[in-house]
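Supplementary Methods S3. Input chains for the assembly prediction are listed below.
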Amino acid sequence: MSSAAARKARPKYLSLRALLFEIRLPLPGWVSILHRISGALLVFPFAAWLLYLLDASLLSESGYEKVKGYLGLPLVKAGLLLFVWAYCHHFCAGIRFLLLDLNKGIELKQARLSSLIVLAASLSLTAWFGARLW
Amino acid sequence: MVNRVVVGAHYGARDWLAQRITAVIMAAYSVILLVVLGTNASLTYGVWKDLFTAGWMRVATLLFAVSLAWHAWVGVRDILMDYIQPVGLRLGMQVLTLLLLASYLGWSVQILWR
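Predicted structure tokens for the full assembly:
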């Protein structure tokens, strides 16, 4: 056995170093792990944050104005933008997964193309929301 | 009997299907909310308050909140099953997740009907 694969040390365990520098995810892999990360972020802290903002903004007119002012702060805007990206990515990637469940676009070439579309679409939507926000 | 893990999946397609159906409900709600907000020329407190006290919007938002809780439960449970191996810790985190999601739901109802 002289192939490169045969000479590698086995078994190989996952380490942080391997995770960060050695394992190269294909595009559909990136869409998948970002779907997971964005989903976790949406559950916490974003859902709690938005419920708090909805609560305060609906309670009274002064509360509404206070939320409006709060959302104008640069750091808060950045947080809002991260939420918008997480929502858009989770939304777009979710639609892709629904189509995959229906056996649409399961060929490698189409799957790679749709991953690229999801990543690009969610970033473009975030940029569009960001432009309207500022 | 098969070795069943109490904090594992329930070996069925129900959760999987529920996650997809709730996803479609939330996607529809998102688009509707975006269209409603987009067609309002200027957003004031009055417009905002009227929107969320309208009967259809209360029900739609409640459906969204229930969908979110159910959808997130399946998703977070999947994440915990993948990354948290000690059974006790996983159970603890699953309970915390359920409490968090139930609190979100209660808070949503409180905001919508007061």
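The domain at 14-112 of chain B is CATH 1.20.1300.10 (3 helical TM bundles of succinate and fumarate reductases). Chain B touches chain A at residues 20, 23-24, 27, 30, 45, 48-49, 52, 68, 72, 75-76, 79, 97, 100-101, 104, 107-108, 110-111 (CB under 8 Å).
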